[in-house]
Amino acid sequence: MISFQNVSKRYPGGVHALNDISFELGRGEMAFLTGRSGAGKSTLLKLIALLERPSRGQVLFEGRNVGKLARRQIPYLRRRIGVIFQDHRMLSDKRVFDNVALPLMIAGVSFGDIKRRVRAALDKVGLLDKEKMYPPMLSGGEQQRVGIARAIIARPPVLLADEPTGNLDPALSAELMDTFLQLNQSGVTVLIASHDLELIKRLGQRVLVLDDGRIVDDVGRRGGPGSGDSDG
Ligand SMILES: Nc1ncnc2c1ncn2[C@@H]1O[C@H](COP(=O)(O)OP(=O)(O)OP(=O)(O)O)[C@@H](O)[C@H]1O
Questions:
Q1: How many CA atoms lie within 13 A of 61 on its CB side?
Q2: Which of 111, 129, 135, 190 could cross-link to 30 by cystine, CB 3.0-4.6 Å?
Q3: Pocket test for ligand 1, best of 42, 85, 215 (most atoms within 8 A of CB)
Q4: Domains of the chain, first to last
């Protein structure tokens, strides 16, 4: 589904954020990306979401080199990737309901369907009672959850999340991780950058460890050594 082949990213100004990264994330797989602040986690996610371009190497999405996509193919790729970033970029003059509904409105879904799906998504993140509020009236954690509802509403096959539990208390973090697990069990490919090692450990999923722009560990890959579900 997602494949990095010897990818490096150097930002203007000289920072080498990623150095010769190679890994694959299969269709329907779930993995965490962890590592110190500045290790390159956000950069890696941005390269998948086409928010940044690699300086070297290739990022493949469903077998296609995203660096070589024609301009008109980019919106198609973006629709297939749900993105949850730390700055959730809500429209502050639009109600929670409309913020979440936005991707479906753009896709031309009927209002009846939009209403049903927005309510289901808000229910999933525990915000059904806040649909008429405006984002500035919500706490940081609540705004983050609106961002999650908006990212999953169009049912994209891939979900990328950058520190999705950063502003949440432990109970809510655990609940949200359960939501990600459920989405993964329904076939969504999920990649989550997180510092929350306790939570990550408890979930028993694959973990990619980044250090100074390199992958220094890849633990618990499905079908990989020690996973218990390989053929051998
Ligand atoms: N737009 C940019 N321009 C220049 N340097 C950047 C830019 N974005 C990130 N960097 C640098 O690239 C390196 C990796 O940053 P990145 O945000 O990917 O790390 P991270 O692992 O996500 O960190 P954190 O956990 O703090 O979010 C850092 O040294 C950072 O300063």
A1: 22
A2: 190
A3: 42
A4: 2-80+156-219 (3.40.50.300), 94-155 (no CATH)
Pocket test for ligand 1, best of 4, 21, 43 (most atoms within 8 A of CB): 43
- For residue 17, report the distance from its CA to the centre of ligand 1, in Å: 6
For the chain, state the CA radius of gyration.
18
Question: 10 Å Cβ neighbour count for 27?
Answer: 12
The verdict on ipTM greater than 0.90 is yes
Q: Kindly state if the Cβ of 194 falls inside 6 Å of ligand 1.
A: no
Query: CA–CA separation, 1 vs 222, rounded Å?
Result: 14
